[in-house]
């Protein structure tokens, strides 16, 4: 069986002028993740990422700890769900029917916890309605692209390979739900709990794929204890 590691990017820079960059903690998380994989004897034959800066930098930092020289393919189909686009277009629609969401929008989304609550409400609306009238990417298009990207990796890499895909929480949640045969309405439960730099393992043979484990960050806890660092974060 060949192996795919789905690795979420390190912590991004919430609240900064440019969110799409690793925070100092995110940089350290990526470094420690690479050190863990090296200690575990994981040799990546290939690495893939979306084209978001936080995804590419996480990939680069992990691969550097594995000795470098790992072929890195950038594929925009591994980009994150377009949360900002959805919040802009759909949050007012959701808020018109949900006073709690309306209250969060009224006071602003400076808190990452408040932002996550809005993301949840908007995501669940997005996957259960036809949102094409709002001029945004549909759930059907997004999920199909993620599925196609995974299948293309499996086909192009072939059997006996170990592959790292460096992506984001929404994409990992979508792929895991697809592997388990679940629909969009059941996807968010995998989205919210995904830790920064957590590792999800898939096994594949041909076009068949199965889930081995999901959202493991125990190695960050272990390495954090070794180095006196707090490495665990959701956002």
Structural write-up:
With 235 residues, this protein is α/β, with parallel strands linked by helices. It has 2 domains: 2-80 and 142-227, Phosphoglycerate mutase-like (Rossmann fold, 3-Layer(aba) Sandwich), CATH 3.40.50; 83-134, no CATH class. It has 9 helices and 6 strands; from the N terminus they run E-H-E-H-E-H-H-H-H-E-H-H-E-E-H. It has helices at 24-39, 53-65, 83-95, 99-107, 112-128, 139-157, 169-179, 188-191, 218-227; strands at residues 2-8, 46-49, 72-74, 162-167, 199-205, 208-216. Strands 3-2-4-1-5-6 form a 6-stranded mixed β-sheet. Strand 5 (199-205) and strand 6 form a beta hairpin. The radius of gyration is 18 Å and the shape is globular. The model has no long low-confidence stretch (mean pLDDT 94). This is Histidine phosphatase family protein. Keywords: Hydrolase. Pfam families: His_Phos_1 (PF00300). GO terms for molecular function: hydrolase activity.
Task: List the topology elements.
Elements: E1 2-8, H1 24-39, E2 46-49, H2 53-65, E3 72-74, H3 83-95, H4 99-107, H5 112-128, H6 139-157, E4 162-167, H7 169-179, H8 188-191, E5 199-205, E6 208-216, H9 218-227
Parallel strand pairs: 1-4, 2-3, 2-4
Antiparallel strand pairs: 1-5, 5-6
Helix pairs in contact: 1-2, 3-4, 3-5, 6-7
